[in-house]
Amino acid sequence: MSNANWKPFIFGGLASMTAECGTFPIDLTKTRLQVQGQVGDSKYKEIRYRGMLHAMARICNEEGIRALYSGIAPAILRQASYGTIKIGTYQSFKRLLVDSPDDETLLTNVVCGVFSGVISSSIANPTDVLKIRMQAQGNVIQGSMIGNFINIYQQEGTRGLWKGVSLTAQRAAIVVGVELPVYDITKKHLILSGYMGDTVYTHFLSSFTCGLAGALASNPIDVVRTRMMNQRVVLGGTCGGYKGTLDCLLQTWRSEGFLALYKGFFPNWLRLGPWNIIFFITYEQLKKIDV
Predict the structure, then answer these.
(1) Cα–Cα distance between 56 and 48 in angstroms, integer?
(2) Are residues 223 and 251 in contact, defined by beta-carbon separation less than 8 angstroms?
(3) What is the pLDDT of residues 259-278, one digit of tens each?
């Protein structure tokens, strides 16, 4: 594999893991906010948290500061796989379609982003399932990451590990199909404008913009995906909550209102914003390493 081909994979994975560590407590509070208030699930029916800061404070008081990093191990593993494949395939697809970054268009980048998002998220889905359950249930889940993977497999089978994979792929298609193209196009126009060069300030503004765009586009499907992944399905195939993606969407809308699909939006945006800023600044700096 040539020098130009392997760099996006390795640097994308390293930058993704760095960003995940820096923003994980925000992601955990987003998950807790999204799973609460479910009429059909008595365990999550109660509205325990009034907002992101209240959730963070209550989790610290009741479960300890370490609880803010419940699920960090599968999250890091997820980024090591998902982030590596996502950035590597995105850059590879772009070079297959166009020879130079100057020839890239918004449509080209969106198509590459959608495909790379679907492929990478589908492969990394088991780590996402475990991460969400550890975040939602906190200290209820005991034992090591590998032990919990085995436990899910024994109780729910392979279907349990790939639960919500279609939703995960749909969300990733939207997020990656929006964020990466928005970053590339914003960065390109800022540089071409002549006001800003290829500097860390350009990377900051571009990543902030793509984080906001990604949060607006992905939040409804993120709520549905979180609730679907968090409910258990026994090996016999029965579950007590939502029957499928559409059923979860409709039940949430009917019982809690349209705005319920934007539960956790601010922590989602506050996570995606810093996450993208940390990721792209780290990634751009790694690209400068002469290896």
Answers:
(1) 11
(2) no
(3) 888 888 887 787 788 999 99
Q: For residue 157, how many other CB atoms are within 10 A of its CB? A: 16
Among candidate residues 117, 280, 284, 113, the one with its CA nearest the CA of residue 211: 280
Question: What would the DSSP string read from start to end of 175-193?
Answer: HHHHHHHHHHHHHHHHHHT
User: What pLDDT shows up at residue 266?
Assistant: 82
Question: CA-CA distance, 28 to 262, in Å (whole number)?
Answer: 16
* Cβ atoms of 27 and 135 closer than 8 Å: yes
DSSP code for 160: H
Question: How far apart, in whole angstroms, are the C-alpha atoms of residue 169 and residue 195?
Answer: 37
DSSP code, position 82: I
Helix 265-287, helix 3-35: angle, nearest 10: 160
Name every residue whose Cβ is closer than 8 Å to that of residue 95 and which is 6 or more positions away in sequence. 4
* 132 neighbors 230 (Cβ within 8 angstroms): yes
Q: How far apart are CA 114 and CA 98, in angstroms?
A: 17
Residue 148 DSSP code:
H
Decide: pTM greater than 0.90. Answer: no
Average of per-residue pLDDT across 171-179: 91
Question: Is the sign of the CA dihedral 261, 264, 270, 275 positive or negative?
Answer: negative
DSSP label of 67: G
